[in-house]
Amino acid sequence: MTAAGVGYCAAVVLAALFATASIAKLRDLPATLTQFTDLGLPRPGVFTRIVPLAELALVTLLLVVPAVGAIFALVTLAFFTTFLVGRVRAGITAPCACFGATVSTPLSRVDIVRNLMLMALAGLVLMATRPIAPAPLDLLAIGIVIAVGAGLLAVLRRR
């Protein structure tokens, strides 16, 4: 197991999540616009087009130059999370729109915790300076991290 291998595995996972989020938004732009509007996002029409494209750019960065992609992912997730904190504090319960219209659960603190976990995953990506073939233990380590994170989110969603 190597730090770079774990970091690149984290980059691939994060890239897959951003790709999923982007494609979900692009598949149904009218629904994305509605969700962004319901969240109170300023200029939702502009963000409906920009956010999915920015997420696709992040996918490329994470896979090609992972450490640079990690920095941009951290900044992007910080902006998203700050916005979500404001919405939760304002009592907004519209779906978070993080994964487009595929998710209809009301916005909650769980979405904030999820984003903080994704930021931690982006922190792991900083260990990868270039794409590399991961060792089996690298894959196992990231698999454990994902399983623990998913388990924690499942427990929090039940509360």
UniProtKB/TrEMBL annotation:
GO terms classed as biological process: methylamine metabolic process
Matching InterPro entries: Methylamine_util_MauE (IPR009908)
Keyword field: Membrane, Transmembrane, Transmembrane helix
Protein name: Unannotated protein
Residues spanning the membrane: 50-80, 116-133, 139-156
Listed Pfam families: MauE
GO cellular component, one term: membrane
Chain ranges of the Methylamine utilisation protein MauE domain: 8-127
Subcellular location: Membrane
Membrane topology of the entry: Multi-pass membrane protein
